[in-house]
Amino acid sequence: MLVDFNHGSGCVYGRDASEPEPLGARINGRIDAALEAEREGQRPRGYLGASRIGEPCARRLVYEVTHTPPDPGKDFEGRVLRIFAAGHVFEDLAIRWLRQAGFDLRTQTQAGGQFGFETAGGRIRGHVDGVIIGGPEIGLAWPVLWEHKALKASSWSDTAKKGVQLSKPVYFGQMQIYMAYMGLGSALFTALNKDTCELYHEHVSFDPAAAQALSDKAVDVLRAADAGDLLPRIATSPDFFLCRFCPFAVRCWEDRA
Prior knowledge:
It comes from Jannaschia seosinensis. By secondary structure, the chain is α/β, with parallel strands linked by helices.
């Protein structure tokens, strides 16, 4: 008869009691550490990216432009960096599919770099996903800007239901700035559902007034950053929904300005 002296002790046979973490956690920890180290080794942007100008809170943009450290625990962790990397893979797939469908989608210049622009002495820059210069008869006049995003299911559904301007104003602003500085009259926005691989496409027309307002906002952000000032908060309370998800929320609401 075998007597189990460890019954009820919590001991699991075959597992070292000193083992700190499951195998998966140990592997993922190393992957995330490598991604975080790679990010830390990258040179910080010395400019305001056009992809960020549509951010509703100009004060947050000042923090970003001045490389203000995020609140403790709010920096990009490895899991988020994996999401970013996966987004690039989904984008490559969408490019391949569109080309197979007969769209002449260009993603690089003849020199091999991304299409883009810079203004304000290089302090405002943008790099676009691509430009479609020709394709099947689908009711669009070529060329058009092409912008791609890979979204989780709930975010994708909201975008497909409301449209990019209402659901994703940052992306809408990004496209308006790109169109303004690249002289393009419209854009094709493609959103991929990461869970189902459904594709949502939306034709976005250039809005000169919106682009001008965004450009003016970018200048205000740079001027405030240069002067060491903070622009007004977007809300009167830290309970505002955008503030709850902002990586600078604690610092922002502790600041007197």
